[in-house]
Amino acid sequence: MDRSLSLELVRVTETAALASASYMGRGDKEGADQAAVDGMRSTFSGLSIKGTVVIGEGELDEAPMLYIGEVVGCGEEGELEVDIAVDPLEGTNLIAKGLPNAIAVVAIAPKGCLLHAPDTYMKKIAVGPKAKGAVDINAPVKQNLEAVAKALDKNIEDVTVIIQDRDRHADIIREVREAGARIKLFSDGDVAAAMATGFEETGVDIMLGIGGAPEGVIAAVALKCLGGDMQGILHPMSEEEVGRCREMGLSKEDVEKVLTLDDLVSSDDCFFAATGITQGDLLKGVLYLGNNQAQTHSVVMRGETGTIRFVEAIHRLDKNETLTEVL
Ligand code: VTB
Ligand code: MG
Ligand code: MG
């Protein structure tokens, strides 16, 4: 894939972030989400790819935009065919309440290289590059923490685990505490949490827990680009959800097995971009500068070369045509 796609993708997440940021604290999850989707979709239309959304905002019959199966981009037949995973507003609760770490995010890979994850839960474990290969999703929590501590040359007391604050994680939280490691609980947004394990400055070493399967695939692309590691196991909660896994083409075995990083995203030739909406641990939020200007902070990564770029941009909200359309 052409390396210039990096910058194109940042535009996509920047627009989604700018479109939804004005909803901060308004308690309107749906409005914020719709604005992010509109922003993202309008920018996609100018991309010279032939992309198919494989992780998106829902099924066609629910009639959302950026639905699974939607073809986006202005690429012609025979042009670069890619699979796209989007979460225009990852953390709708976060923006509704003005809490940290809401992001706009997109990932792409060559056609057929992203797991077609259904909208169910996934059990996940994620670590940064230094702990790659050291963890096992089926191992006891303590064993994984010891392995991470060893890989990072830290005492277990100095290892920080990031966990979504949910009742379903009570056992994990207890086991981490018993092992003596530190915990950072977060209310929402496990893509940002998984991504944080790949950057030492966040102080986060490992993510454990159960979150959305679509978010799992998106995070996997980030960790692939970062040289980190991730494993997942799909976690359908009902027979109906098992059925949905089947509809996505996943066998009984696929649903039960440990999905490695390569199962989640099977090519190194992938891209990941995220823009902060609310202030976060890694990315700053959208900042309104007055005078019709706003600043965004994004990260964009390319798997093939492992290049990670942080892009800080100042936008003229009144001059940019795409923005004036969606704002
Ligand atoms: C998960 C997580 C997301 O929503 O999907 C979560 O992956 C929903 O979990 O990052 P609950 O059912 O426990 O609320 C997010 O936190 C935000 O989309
Ligand atoms: Mg979403
Ligand atoms: Mg989400």
How would you explain this protein's 3D organization?
With 327 residues, this protein is an alpha+beta fold. It folds into two domains: 5-113 and 269-326, Fructose-1,6-Bisphosphatase, Chain A, domain 1, CATH 3.30.540.10; 121-264, D-Maltodextrin-Binding Protein, domain 2 (3-Layer(aba) Sandwich). Helix content is 32%, strand content 27%. The chain contains eleven helices and 13 strands. The protein has helices at residues 5-21, 29-44, 92-97, 141-152, 170-179, 190-196, 213-226, 239-247, 252-256, 261-264, 321-326; strands at 50-55, 71-72, 81-90, 103-110, 121-127, 160-164, 182-186, 206-212, 229-235, 271-276, 287-290, 293-302, 307-316. The strands form two sheets. Strands 1, 2, 3, 4, 10, 11, 12 and 13 form an eight-stranded mixed beta sheet that branches. The chain has a five-stranded mixed beta sheet with strand order 7-6-8-5-9, sandwiched between helices. Helix 1 runs antiparallel to helix 2 (29-44) and helix 6 packs parallel to helix 7 (213-226). The two termini are 31 Å apart. The chain binds 7-O-phosphono-alpha-L-galacto-hept-2-ulopyranose (VTB) and magnesium ion (2 copies).
